Amino acid sequence: xxxxxxxxxxxxxxxxxxxxxxxxxxxxxxxxxxxxxxxxxxxxxxxxxxxxxxxxxxxxxxxxxxxxxxxxxxxxxxxxxxxxxxxxxxxxxxxxxxxxxxxxxxxxxxxxxxxxxxxxxxxxxxxxxxxxxxxxxxxxxxxxxxxxxxxxxxxxxxxxxxxxxxxxxxxxxxxxxxxxxxxxxxxxxxxxxxxxxxxxxxxxxxxxxxxxxxxxxxxxxxxxxxxxxxxxxxxxxxxxxxxxxxxxxxxxxxxxxxxxxxxxxxxxxxxxxxxxxxxxxxxxxxxxxxxxxxxxxxxxxxxxxxxxxxxxxxxxxxxxxxxxxxxxxxxxxxxxxxxxxxxxxxxxxxxxxxxxxxxxxxxxxxxxxxxxxxxxxxxxxxxxxxxxxxxxxxxxxxxxxxxxxxxxxxxxxxxxxxxxxxxxxxxxxxxxxxxxxxxxxxxxxxxxxxxxxxxxxxxxxxxxxxxxxxxxxxxxxxxxxxxxxxxxxxxxxxxxxxxxxxxxxxxxxxxxxxxxxxxxxxxxxxxxxxxxxxxxxxxxxxxxxxxxxxxxxxxxxxxxxxxxxxxxxxxxxxxxxxxxxxxxxxxxxxxxxxxxxxxxxxxxxxxxxxxxxxxxxxxxxxxxxxxxxxxxxxxxxxxxxxxxxxxxxxxxxxxxxxxxxxxxxxxxxxxxxxxxxxxxxxxxxxxxxxxxxxxxxxxxxxxxxxxxxxxxxxxxxxxxxxxxxxxxxxxxxxxxxxxxxxxxxxxxxxxxxxxxxxxxxxxxxxxxxxxxxxxxxxxxxxxxxxxxxxxxxxxxxxxxxxxxxxxxxxxxxxxxxxxxxxxxxxxxxxxxxxxxxxxxxxxxxxxxxxxxxxxxxxxxxxxxxxxxxxxxxxxxxxxxxxxxxxxxxxxxxxxxxxxxxxxxxxxxxxxxxxxxxxxxxxxxxxxxxxxxxxxxxxxxxxxxxxxxxxxxxxxxxxxxxxxxxxxxxxxxxxxxxxxxxxxxxxxxxxxxxxxxxxxxxxxxxxxxxxxx
Length: 1012
What we know:
Distance between the termini: 63 Å
Number of helices: 31
Helix content: 25-40%
Largest sheet: 9 strands, mixed
Strand content: 15-25%
């Protein structure tokens, strides 16, 4: 921790001279102006005391700063007698304190308290509980004889000298915000030799500098019976700094930085025989990766140097040397920063100290150069052009990017050369700080308790705090604490099993629970039952409006970086006869008042699913954005989501009359008929729709699909040549390129797309449609070209980014694909498909732990998603967590009646070459459920291939190919089996056939170690 300025009296630095560890007594300094004249206003009703005046005067002289504080108050009630307990605090290494008067005024009588009593010095550290040694002294005086009705007057001056920051004084002065009767004054006086600069808040009015005797200058602000400051509701901190005066003798932030750079650079120089060199050698030998080395250095400082703030003997700004800190095994933020700098520089990693404000420091950008604007220092390391904020005072960081969004708003690099105050970009969090998954099984009925499973996750510093608390408890006590936690989360919950674990790598705390809970059903058998869905309704927000007297031009602060998610699964009772389950939970994907609001829901196979999140993406919004957000708020779907029974009312089918039918209705009728294989009726419905509205896109796309399903590519193009003569949007016209691609006319398809894009370069829907067309091409190059060209205009579109990822993946350019996958997740971290895509890149690059972190998060968004379950199991198999991987399929298998889940588990175990006996049983069970699915036989063949039963493998691949002769994977697998049997001709034939169908047919098996 760094020294910070006091709130009422000026914090300062100056040059060193005599100091004192005793309280001195004497007259006020000669430069002082007389006390403010009292006002005549009466005290506020029921006030315990009346402040007659307060007076703060600061004198900046040559190598010395003096801060005078005086006040006079009247005791009105017994509660105010505590004002007689007067405390002085100062640092004897830099300060000396002189008390001028303490007296009681009782009518015409003046009692000199100091005649009979003196301050008693108490050598007491006030912040030992916070591991802070400030070196301060405290002196106490109990004002004897003080009575209700008395007035108490006090005055003292602190003289401060310190050469640590080059004889530069700086500080702040504050007048009260509240509206109280009395006189309140601040006065700043500086010698003519000083190059002092100052800043005042606008509510103080014009700053008039007065000339004083001897060439000095002064600035005075006085409030007499002031009203309260008018604060701006909801505004960022900097807009509510009121009645404030800041001053500094530093010419610029660069001057302050240069002075401090000398202190830190000297402290970071290691002795030739320093043991820190050996620690750096160990780190260097353990890894050649600069990021791994930087993380190891950070962990060494965090884990082996305990935190103790040192403010003794000018220690508020002067850091201990790296060697001193290593010997002591303790240090404050300055000491830890110096030690970390020394280690990183020894390792050849660029590192510099950076001053920050741990509480945010939103107003620092408008201040003159004041050291007190900062209270913390850490290291900024630069590796491969990327900055990493490394804080040695934190604990258990297992990543260089442990904090997604740093809390500080401004930073001052401490270095020589060109330097200035820098704004710190605070990106939104890409992982929820808190995520909730609740799985309720209510299939036992409306009157029975539900079986409940829950998972809560916490990230960052809160997770670490919970971890430290739980780690300090016995297992029995930890269980009791966790059960209490879960009971407090859900009314009526009876937790049975509770567990917790902490993931060091992600700084993630995971709490799990199983138990029972009685759902709060509404309704009855006659009217139907309903249940409110926990965590699926957005809380109504107040409008962002301010009273007319407040600043209407100020922005609005956003709760940033908030990010929380709720995922809920309800396994419903079987629908009763004549009833069906339905729900209310409209999808939400919108940005409102600086927040991204997301909700998805579905009801399928008797399982209600919702996932909802709110994530702030900016620290503040403009008044115009706030006004725009106010209009939708009353109409916004804030209702609690609900799943409920609906009575089925039977009605005789009525044919839809031809008159009055809309084109859209007929087009959707055509889609229904297509799904029922009634092609002739579907064709008529599409034609009827287009006769009514030639621009109906549903009918156009439906007829194209219908003709393509018949293999009539010529008919498709003939139809489109007529249909597209209408004035249709460009993205609809792209359907002709899709038809050309389907017909095998790739060159013509891309020419058509290029012509459209040339005419409509800024049409995002066209760009998306064009890349979708190219996705059907086995050659990924055109798809990549179209995606990258579109991204130049729409760099944040997740659809285009995903296509770029897929195209690069097909070219085995995984590292490049990962950069686009990262960007897509940053844009929309609630899309589990984007997380899954990124995880696939990470798996390809061998970063299994990182892939699993993405897949875990995708699972928390949707625990029922089959693709996520499958990919997550693949990562777990790769990490050797076999039982966990196998068990992750259990819920899916219980829901899947066709064998797909069993087959996927069999396939992934075969690829990983693990649990082959269990895998073979899974494949056999899948085939028993669905014997005509070629993919199941293909997986079955893989297991025989792994086990080494070549004949059996060939038979199983034969079964797969009988069901699907164009299965390139089965051809490739059978080729491998023939090759193992030394049947080279048969193998070559199958290899050739597989590659003719798909040049990447063998990629997955080859990557799994099954190569020719």
